[in-house]
Amino acid sequence: MTHELLIEKGFKLNEFAECEFYNWLRIASATVDRNINRDWYHANHKPYIEIEMSTSQFAEAITSLNQGDGVPVTLKYLNGKRTEECPFKNKRQEFENDFKNKMKELSHRLDSLTKNTEEILNSKKNLVKKDKEIILEEIAMLRQEINSNLPYMGNCFNEQMDKTVLEAKGEVEGFILNKIISTGIEGLKNEFKMLED
Fold it and tell me: Which end of the chain has the smaller Cβ count within 10 Å, N or C?
């Protein structure tokens, strides 16, 4: 028994994009037959593992070996069994939800600060040092959220959108390159057919 490493390319249609180009990497067991002075390899139809990568993931995987934790890919088969489909994550929507949640949290904290401050001011004629510290601490935390954490969240959003745009450009370029190559191959086949006639 031998092993075969097979890299295939293909197209996948899904509900998020009209047409996306993917690279597959499949590792499966195979047998070898010696016949007519040649070795013939026959792969098992159920791979040990099969992964799916976008064109930019494939490029990143082969150009950045042994760096960091690797490149995330979509696992399609493991030990000959098909895995569940990965859910699509809309990064823009994730950031929008994160921002809404952060704003709700800030609103609740501001409401709490307002209520606590009103209670302290209404219940006491003279504020003690502890009361002042509680109010000032809450105000300082809200200031930090507004001055530091929200701008950081905005920077993360911009970085993700830049990354998404760059990945999309890579996917379009990969798709176009594949179309050019496949069209060129078909043209060459037609030329050879014409020469044979």
Answer: C
CA–CA gap between residue 48 and residue 76 (Å, rounded): 10
Which of 62, 60, 30 minimizes the C-alpha distance to 48?
30
Task: Answer yes or no: are the C-beta atoms of 14 and 20 closer than 8 Å.
Answer: yes
Tell me how far apart the terminal alpha carbons of the chain are, to the nearest angstrom.
44
Other Cβ atoms closer than 10 A to 21: 20
Question: Domain extents for the chain?
Answer: 2-82, 91-186
Tens of pLDDT, residue by residue over 37-88, are 888 888 777 788 888 887 777 777 788 878 777 777 777 877 778 888 777 7
Find, among 104, 21, 31, 33, the residue nearest to 59 by Cα.
21
Query: In angstroms, rounded to a whole number, what is the distance separating the alpha carbons of residues 46 and 27?
Result: 9
| Three-class DSSP category at 16 | coil
Return the bridge partners of 29, or none.
3
